[in-house]
Amino acid sequence: MDLSEVVLTHYKLGSKGKASLSPGETDDTKLQPMTETGSGQVRDKQKALLDEIIQHLNDLFGGDSTDADKVAWIEHTRSKIMENETLRGQAANNSKEQFRHSPDFEGALMDAIIEGLDAYSGLSKQALEDEAIRRRLKDILLGPGQLWEMLRKREGGHRPAP
Length: 162
Fold this sequence. Notes:
Elements: H1 45-61, H2 67-82, H3 85-93, H4 96-100, H5 103-115, H6 121-129, H7 131-142, H8 147-155
Helix pairs in contact: 1-7, 2-5, 3-8, 6-7
């Protein structure tokens, strides 16, 4: 079986209980020293952002949906917002904090959530019914979701940030 083209796109973390790590129980509990300079690995920035998004969404929605559904839903929401020409212009001409408080952003977020109702009903319904979830969703989109940066880039992000 050839698995050379298989790509891991999602994974799920779960608690399997607590383990005792008291010193002296086994020799396996000792930290191994570094053996070579530069033996650490650089973490892929996109993977780190995706991990952060998944963690935030898990905190926000719990275990009701799979990680794949949550990632697909946030991607859908972000892509719908990125289609908005008004927001692209606002992102290009305003700071991230100014953009966060735009009433157009709030409206576009609500529209994107509503458009996702058919495919992501559980997540969308929770977001529509709870303003706190929408605030956290904005934080996710503007933080690790990099919505503002992507909108600026799409609009021709050559303008300096105010």
